[in-house]
């Protein structure tokens, strides 16, 4: 009830950072709230000129999830896939954001840990082909192995 009633009224007063947090949270959480996501994205599209590189990066992740519905949790995927007008609203807002922020350079700093370096030497000793720090969409994976296996070291 809170998501459907109180949050939409709050959107007009929310800061850009609050809208960013809400958009990212809606994509990650398993809520049937695609309509709310579309309104948040529309609001952010009006502020696209003022987005930081970090916010642009986060929105590119949101865009990837919306454009690849299998990346969403089941409730959000169902909510998004059953309503064409919501899909169009999301797509239009994301396209506007992308058009406005296409020249924003989102830097991702590559930092190898001691464990990553040891794992790379281990892969080398095994003769296992691998690619370090591979970009997959907006994500940077530590290692990609044959047969589409990703290794993330945390």
What can you see in these coordinates?
It contains seven helices and three strands. The chain is mainly α and 154 residues long. The chain has a three-stranded antiparallel beta sheet, with no helix packed on it. Strand 1 (131-136) and strand 2 (139-145) form a beta hairpin. The longest helix has 18 residues, at 84-101. The relative contact order is 0.12.
Topology:
Layout: H1 2-10, H2 16-28, H3 34-46, H4 53-67, H5 74-81, H6 84-101, H7 114-126, E1 131-136, E2 139-145, E3 149-151
Antiparallel strand pairs: 1-2, 2-3
- Major sheet: order of its strands? 1-2-3
The backbone outline, from C-alpha atoms, is elongated
Q: Describe the biggest sheet?
A: 3 strands, antiparallel
The quaternary state of the protein chains shown equals: single chain
Give the ordered list of helices and strands: HHHHHHHEEE
Report helical residue fraction: 55-70%
Mean pLDDT: 81
Tally of contiguous helical segments: 7
Which strand-content bin applies to the residues?
5-15%
């Amino acid at each position: 009830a809170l998501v459907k009633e109180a949050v939409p009224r709050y959107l007009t007063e929310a800061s850009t950072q609050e809208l960013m947090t809400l958009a990212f949270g809606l994509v990650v959480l398993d809520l049937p709230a695609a309509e709310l996501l579309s309104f948040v994205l529309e609001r952010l599209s009006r502020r696209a000129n003022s987005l930081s590189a970090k916010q642009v990066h986060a929105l590119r992740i949101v865009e990837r999830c919306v454009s690849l519905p299998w990346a969403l949790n089941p409730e959000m995927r169902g909510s998004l896939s059953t309503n064409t007008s919501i899909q169009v609203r999301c797509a239009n807002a994301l396209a506007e954001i992308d058009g406005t922020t296409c020249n924003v350079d989102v830097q991702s700093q590559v930092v190898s840990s001691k464990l990553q370096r040891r794992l790379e030497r281990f892969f080398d000793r095994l003769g296992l082909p691998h690619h370090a720090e591979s970009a997959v969409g907006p994500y940077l994976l530590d290692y990609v192995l044959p047969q589409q296996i990703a290794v993330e070291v945390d």
